[in-house]
User: What shape does this take?
Amino acid sequence: MNPFLNSLIEPLTLRLPSDDLVGVPRCRRVFMRWQGEPIADTYGGKAVLNFFDEPMFAELAILGTLRKAGWDGVWVDTYRNKFRQALAPHCCDLPSHAQRLYDRIQETNGGKRSGCFDVFAWNDGRYLFVEAKRKAKDSIRETQKAWIQAALNVGVAIDSLLICEWDLGFWDNTSDALKSARWGMFRGDVVSIHVAATTGIPMESHQHVEAIAGRGLEGDRYFDGTGHWSNSSGVSREITLIEIESIEALAREKNIEITPGAARRNLVTRGVPLNHLVGREFRVGGVRLRGTRLCEPCQYLEGLTTKGVLAGLIHRGGLRADIVSGGTIRVGDLVTESKNSE
Assistant: This one.
């Protein structure tokens, strides 16, 4: 899964040298500034970021995010004509399958290396090129437009390209926020809590709920095995989460307004990259959860809400998770990635 899907914004429309207009997918990301010992080689003053307690440039932080989600790849350091997976002097070679695609694009681009996107990643036969652009500081160059055209001409799909607009976040003085930034690089919270005693009935909102490891949330239909999917095999449904940003985007982009409870997820969060938490442990207050898979929308959900919800929530329908250690979850609880989530 592409860990940037949950932070997609409107595509960037570009006019290519062929005069064709294309909409390149775009996302936004916030990183924390590195505050440890200065690194020796900053490439003339590039911003140095804190990525899981390691100093990184934005290109390597983006690559690291993909690698934590199961991808492999490199930073295409066109400045020094190297492929890297870490700061200089480390360098590496492309695997043969990736080298062939890279060479085809270069050949189609008139033999020019310039303009290639910063990160070249691959996963199970899929490819992704990501260009890192500092928000309000960088823009797409003409050489990059030519490279995009060459990539499209050799068969790279437009959704295999991504522009990542990134910016620096802030360290505040609260220990919880500092820990959140240090370990997970996000600081979110619980907006609302919802459970339903049996299948099909409206979700009820609560200010707090008890989470039981291996079972689910007390008072919820999946805790008692009476949910619509309770008898289905596969990944458990102990607890489900959705981002309030996804519900807001549904209204903004599709003109479909639903209440947070109508999404039929137990926890509604703000500021939490849920898609990125598949296979990772994270904390909601004092409760420890582990993401198991995305909670994609289905026809059943659309039948309980309105037409268009299914298409509007694809890839942003939330997350299923197991309860690793239980306790009370409250509205307003801090959501952070666990220190031992590696």
Helices lie at 58-68, 96-108, 142-153, 175-183, 244-254, 299-304, 309-312. The first strand starts at residue 8 and ends at 15. The two ends are 17 Å apart (CA to CA). Residues 251 and 317 are 14 Å apart (CA to CA).
